[in-house]
TrEMBL record:
InterPro entries: A_deaminase_dom, Ado/ade_deaminase, Metal_Hydrolase
Organism: Trichocoleus desertorum GB2-A4
Superkingdom of the organism of origin: Bacteria
Similarity comment text for this entry: Belongs to the metallo-dependent hydrolases superfamily. Adenosine and AMP deaminases family.
Designated name of the protein: adenosine deaminase
Amino acid sequence: MSLYAELHRHLGGSVVPRVLWRYFHRSQSDLAQRFPEYPEFEEFYTRPRKTLDEYLELHTLVENVQSAKTLPYFIYRLIRGAYIFENLAYLELRYTPYLRTPDHLPQTERIDQMAQIVEIVGQASQLSEYPIVTSQILCMHSRLPYAVNRAIVELSAQNRTYVCGIDLAGGDAYYAERLDEFTELYAYARSLGLNTTGHVYETTDGSYPELLPYLMRIGHGIQIPLRYPELLPELAQQNQCLEVCPTTYLKTGTLEDIRQLKLVFDRCFEAGVDIAICTDNAGLHNVRLPFEYENLLTYDVIGFKELQACQDAAFKHAFAWPHRQRPASILTEVLREDEKVSEPAQSVVN
């Protein structure tokens, strides 16, 4: 049995369409009246969008219902599905805690409530019947004020039990006018010893070389091998890993065909840059991690040797995986020990 690591999954986009549709109907939401039947809702929720901005609007649909009260409901179903259907041994969930607090409260009160959200997500993720190693990445947001983003960095440093790193999300086209601010926040995070990743080089609007020195992993990053391959040797030298989410680029209009990713993988392998294959928004795409693997193989983007290298890279670059080996190696050693114990004792010839 293969066990996998997922390094790039958003809490907002992780809710599968049927679970979300059932929640809307149980809570008598306006969306229940708009979509009385499930197939219409699934088509609306999972269809491709023209731009990243249009795609990100769907996150607000889920963020508005993921509150302190409802988060355990969604997370239980998320972890259950990840364990049963995806064979995940390790999962990093990323989200912006501020966006799970009541939006009618003053900013200072919402900042104060973020710690409770982190605690709820952390506790809800610990399910004995579905033993997955989980951790959280807290996302700064390109449309949130500096004070909120700084508080997110500080909360991450204060809650290392549940938080393994920080991210920057919200649409990469909006970084430019605040680039100095985000550079400062990343430098602050590194000074606190935090692990870092960030949504950069996802689209043609997201090229920010100024942020690269502060990132241990790169959220997406596909435009580097596609448009700036001269940067790859430095990424390899710095041991930076790309978090590539194949279905996302088709859903956001960033790429027209999944086969365009072949150049991404080929150039990264040639330069010695690791890639972890991820889902990004498994629920929003209605595509789980093993299907991402299968699609890449089906369209000859990668072969089985490259797939295994990417699976190894995911555990290698995981911020909170507590073992030196990936699960397959650990299981192999356990089985070998069991075989030694079960071997019949050799008879002694006098």
